[in-house]
Design a protein that fits this description.
Blueprint (H helix, E strand, L loop, with lengths): L3 E3 L4 E3 L2 E4 L1 H9 L8 E6 L4 E10 L2 E10 L5 E8 L3 H14 L1 E7 L16 H15 L6 E5 L2 H7 L1 H5 L3 E5 L5 E2 L8 E5 L7 H10 L2 E4 L7 H12 L1
Parallel strand pairs: 1-4, 7-8, 7-12, 8-9, 10-12, 10-13, 11-13
Antiparallel strand pairs: 2-3, 3-6, 4-5, 5-6
Helix pairs in contact: 2-3, 2-7
Length: 235
């Protein structure tokens, strides 16, 4: 945790916040926080600064908060991500957040098991937690927009054209004729398929919508590895 992300309910008075639970355990056990010390803090969707610890016991940490920095800018990236396996979802969502994606859409695909959509990891609480973990890692405060699209055809036809407007739309697909470009000069909409890959019909539907298939090389990568590699090339 490189930044303690605070929410409105953490403030007990103007400029004064209280931590309990997971964040308290982390800063006490990992950072070895102590009264008089300070922590890098930020307010969700707001500014960043320092928190001076004024009270610390096994159940509570209180601090005086001063916010004097803006968060880092988001990447101009809309990520269309085929819903990963539940045990991969947490890593992928935290990674996409820490990389700075402005918008994330979890979408269905033929090779996405129907049971994935019933996973408790798709609860609002867990989806928020994974994005918070990504922000804490990367010293950011602005939560990426997150949407769930359970119907591929409906999303591609009805919603995707507006999302990809005025962007460079790319679909990652092993074996595509063109390599992924480097240093994109405009906002990007990037579609990454499931671990088994997109169906050719799904790629064709995205191409008809305006997407360009791009290849990342000869190796087949895990979702979170492909995500980092693609974003590194594009930005």
């Amino acid at each position: 945790m490189n930044l303690v992300l605070l929410f409105e309910q953490d403030f007990i008075a103007p400029g004064r916040a209280r931590l309990e639970g997971r964040r308290l355990a982390h800063v006490a056990g990992i950072h070895r926080a102590a009264v008089g010390g300070s922590l890098m803090v930020g307010v969700a969707n707001g500014r960043m600064g320092r928190g001076l610890i004024t009270r610390l016991d096994p159940t509570t940490l209180e601090m005086e908060v001063a916010l004097d920095q803006d968060p880092p800018p988001k990447l101009p990236l809309t990520l269309i991500l085929a819903l990963p396996r539940p045990k991969v979802l947490n890593r992928a969502l935290a990674a996409a957040t820490s990389l700075g994606a402005a918008r994330i859409v979890l979408i269905n695909a033929w090779k996405v098991e129907k049971s994935y959509w019933k996973s408790p990891r798709l609860s609002d609480e867990n989806l928020l937690l994974q994005r918070v973990l990504g922000l804490e890692q990367s010293k950011d405060t602005v939560l990426p927009e997150l949407r769930l699209a359970r119907f591929f055809k409906t999303f591609v036809e009805d919603e995707l054209p507006a999302l990809m407007k005025n962007t460079l739309p790319l679909v990652a697909h092993p074996g595509a004729a063109d390599p992924c470009p480097r240093d994109a000069a405009k906002p990007v909409t990037l579609a990454i398929g499931p671990e088994g890959g997109w169906l050719d019909a799904e790629v064709q539907r995205l191409v008809e919508t305006g997407f360009q298939p791009v290849d990342l090389g000869h190796r087949i990568l895990r979702v979170e590895t492909a995500l980092a590699s693609l974003v590194g090339r594009l930005f």
